[in-house]
Amino acid sequence: MANLLDIKIDSLCFPGTGEPVLKNINLPVAAGEFIVLAGPSGAGKSVLLSCLAGVIPLYKKARLHGAIQYRGQSITRLPELAGKIGLVTDNPQNQLFCTTVEEDLAFGPCSMLLPPEDVRRRIKDALDFVFLPGYQPRKPETLSGGEMQRVVLASVLAMNPEILLLDRPADQLDPKGRKEIYQRLHRLSKVQGKTIIVIEETWEDVMPLADRFWGLNQGNLVYDLPNTKTVTISSLREKWGPVKGMPKTGPKAVPVQEYRSDALPALEVRDLYLRYENGGFALHNLTLNICPGEFVALMGENGAGKTTLTKTFNGLLRPQKGSVTVNGLDTQQHTTAQLSLHLGYLFQNPLMQVCCNSVEEEIAFALKVKKYPKDQIAAIVKKTIQEFGLEQAASLHPYRLSRGMLQKAALASVLVANPGILVVDEPTSNMSYEEARDALEIIDRYNKKGTTVIMITHHLKFALEFCRRFLVMKNGGLILDTDTGSLAHHQEIFADLGFALPEISGRGGNKHETALGL
């Protein structure tokens, strides 16, 4: 039986670059396969999916030596690919451009000239598939990051492609949602014969479902393995070999510093209420204090209000009732620019805060705003670039980076100004495990030097290792505020989020890693 896809890439180079981004890749793909594509940031994973979708070289110019064939035909010569191959990119906002969810989902089927009744049926079925029934009238800009990812997946499913190319399609979903989506995708593969190739950094949910594993590092295919009992996360990571730009060992553990509970709160939230445009509450009856030097995990399912809450900290959102103070400053009486001198914010989507033409300029930007002397700026930027392992990316435009590297550069641009308070919204998204841990070690060092850290995360393993306090939100309210040592008393709340709490041995212990299979 003929292969569905035949991939032969001798080399792929972008204009102006000499080193191939992809090389020596030769892979057959059969119908109905579920394939997991892994590798460190910058390995070429997203580029490979763009090639398979025809985006490269048809729309994004590159020199491709080799051929990619769909059912024996070159994808560059097929009259249309939309009904055959669907691509979900790693930035959901890039694929949402209409005023309602319904219009976004209708765009593809309407472009295929389907009858209106078929379009409506496909929209309903796709939203039901991603667990968003009734979301047709919602505005995309009002959705959480996880909800946006579901909508983008639904928009591709509505076109009913034979091949689904998925670039971290569940990266911003809560654990329960991730498992549900991947289980449904697996059934789609096995029942309907859809071929699925997915890039995934967190493998626990996809490893039992995969038929094959592909691994890339520095553009090379380092493994193509069937799923057997001998395949483990550790064995796959070892096959990557050396990871470019990654330190071999992390920093030494530093004793935990205590924070003063009697000090002026770094953040104080009192009786907070914030309404949606439709009149419903995004936040309600929310009160909390965060002390200087704390490292806090903010958790909850998608749409719980986590990002909405933290955007009230820097004045991006203004509540209808209640108050937020940052280092004693009332956010209602100060501009976002004034608050940014006290609080650094890393957005869930790093593209939202990129404004310069190179990584080096991006890191220097905050120092220029604070009017640091030029010689100090140069020295601080150089040190920060080395600290984050960005030496080879320093002169590149941020848009040239992989999403994992861009996330790291954005974090560097926030931390370079040494903010007293740091809010990070899913700081490890789009990073490999090693890179995520490295980034959190850097944040941890700043925390030990006194920076207050509030981290929105769906990664319990990292939260257990680095955070000393846990806040859990649901439906716009705070349902749990506890320290790490008391988590065992709240198993039910975490089970509802899709987590099984491991045995806790203390911050930085090894029992977390064993319990979570990492």
TrEMBL record:
Family recorded in the similarity comment? Belongs to the ABC transporter superfamily.
The answer to whether UniProt assigns keyword Cell membrane to this entry is yes
Topology in membrane: Peripheral membrane protein
Keywords on record: ATP-binding, Cell membrane, Membrane, Nucleotide-binding, Translocase, Transport
Q: Which GO terms describe its molecular function?
A: ATP binding; ATP hydrolysis activity; ATPase-coupled transmembrane transporter activity
Q: Which Gene3D superfamilies match?
A: P-loop containing nucleotide triphosphate hydrolases
Its name, as the record gives it, is ABC transporter domain-containing protein
* Record-linked InterPro entries: AAA+_ATPase, ABC_transporter-like_ATP-bd, ABC_transporter-like_CS, ABC_transpr_CbiO/EcfA_su, ECF_ABC_transporter_ATP-bd, P-loop_NTPase
Compartment annotation: Cell membrane
Q: Which GO terms describe its cellular component?
A: ATP-binding cassette (ABC) transporter complex
Domain ABC transporter stretches: 7-243, 267-500
Q: Which domain of life is it from?
A: Bacteria
